[in-house]
Write a structure and sequence with these properties.
The chain is of the alpha/beta class. The chain has a domain of 169 residues: Vaccinia Virus protein VP39 (Rossmann fold), CATH 3.40.50. The chain has ten helices and ten strands. The strands form two sheets. It has a seven-stranded mixed beta sheet with strand order 6-5-4-7-8-10-9, sandwiched between helices. Strands 1-2-3 form a three-stranded antiparallel beta sheet. Strand 1 and strand 2 form a beta hairpin. Helix 6 packs parallel to helix 8 and helix 8 runs antiparallel to helix 9. The radius of gyration is 23 Å and the shape is globular. It starts with a helix and ends with a strand. The N terminus is likely disordered.
């Protein structure tokens, strides 16, 4: 009996459970955005309903880190970027240097007015900018002025469901100039675009993942450039598991419809 117990207790140990790779919250966010219609390599659409071709001249106003225009540069379009932040303009210019873009034109500007001729662009992009500007009507008028007849517009602003959720939790400066100085309802957004003289083709929303991530980000009190915290890491793990589940896409769609980080309008200039 003793020899049997010894064999049972000193035998080959059970294999260790494999250690799961850490989920990168930003790469997961990119994957989530692609599931929502962004960066479609197969169709060449920056967002669903917004194709970009080598024949296009694409203007991105408020280019930020250049993710949108890099996709468009890879499509071979001529790229024009404009942003108030000179460092972001330069970083985006460098990022575009490895793309087959037909040309790259850069402007450091507050966009009031845009230093661009009338009817220049066939595609106009401005994402998460209107909530920052003092006069949205004037800003949109400039975007409309520089678009050619028939030009397509891709415009986005934060969705009020996410903004309202963060009101009492976000850092106070989040809702102060130069950050978000207004919360724009769905009706207001559509009215702004229509009153600027554009035809609204589609209006959608996405980003439950990022809404929850931002909520936890404020609680974690970490730097945005190095947002490493158990709250954020556990949320990324959870959302990855949701997306990997049999009905993950259905669950994502349902949650995006309830609390969304952004609302997106595709419009056309008559």
């Amino acid at each position: 009996m003793l020899s049997l117990l010894k064999k049972l207790t000193t035998g080959t140990p059970a294999p260790a459970e494999p250690v799961a790779e850490k989920v990168d919250p930003y790469m997961l966010g990119l994957h989530d955005a692609m599931l929502s219609g962004w960066f479609n390599q197969q169709t060449g659409e920056l967002f669903t309903g917004f194709p970009v071709t080598p024949e296009d001249t694409l203007l991105d106003v408020g280019c930020g880190d250049g993710g949108n225009v890099h996709f468009c540069g890879m499509r071979g379009a001529k790229i024009i970027i404009a942003d108030i932040d000179a460092a972001k303009v330069e970083a985006t210019r460098q990022r575009l240097s490895d793309t087959p873009a037909r040309g790259v034109e850069c402007h450091v500007t507050d966009c009031n007015p845009l230093p661009i001729a009338d009817a220049t662009a066939t595609r106009v992009v401005s994402t998460e900018v209107i909530e920052h500007v003092d006069d949205p009507a004037q800003f949109l008028a400039e975007l409309v002025r520089v678009g050619q007849p028939g030009a397509l517009y891709l415009l986005s602003v934060p969705h009020p469901s996410s903004e309202d959720l963060q009101k009492d939790i976000a850092a106070p400066e989040y809702f102060r100039k130069p950050n978000h100085i207004r919360i724009i309802s769905e009706e207001q957004f559509k009215a702004m675009v229509s009153e600027a003289g554009l035809e609204v083709l589609s209006h959608s929303q996405y980003g439950f993942y990022w809404s929850m991530w931002m909520l936890l980000f404020w609680e974690a009190k970490v730097d945005f450039s190095n947002a490493d915290h158990p709250l954020l890491n556990h949320w990324a793990d959870t959302w990855q598991a949701v997306l990997n589940s049999p009905r993950g896409a259905q669950i994502k769609q349902a949650l995006d419809a309830v609390v969304a980080k952004s609302q997106v309008i595709i419009a056309r200039k008559p």
